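Reopening this one. Same input as before:
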Amino acid sequence: MGAFAMLESGINGALGEVLDLKGIRSAVVTRNMSFADKIRTLRTLVDIFVLDREKAKSFDKLARKAQGCAETRNIVAHNPFRASPKSDGVEFFSFKASSTLQILDIDWSIDDFIQKIDEITSIDNGLRDLEKVMPMERIARALMRPADTKSTSALGGLLGLGSATTDEQ
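Same output, byte for byte:
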């Protein structure tokens, strides 16, 4: 649960980074969003604002993996469990009831838990790399932006960078 909480915190940070929101602004935006909404929003924003298509694809892949972690979290959070009679871990009592009843056989060893925690941590670390990418993306967009005839500098591009980086997108 702790690893998942850190992942969600990282996703909140990534959303804040892409939206260029800090502190309380970022917290207000992400607080009332479901985990799935955060992932969908992050994927859309990365697609729009990360110019390097390979990096955008990489972050999108990580975001989709993060979505899969929600199921792992739900198993731990919403199912009763006991010491496993088959392994050194736990047995979860879980079922699905869509159109039919399915009793799920979920037994995680200590190694299974460690693997799941490592996977969640790896995804979290990868998504936190947006903090390194977004400042460069903002500079690249500012360099590509044509001169604003209303600004004090009619130069745009590199020479208009100072005013362009402070403009709202």
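So the earlier flakiness isn't reproducible anymore. For the record, The beta strands are 81-83, 90-97, 101-108.
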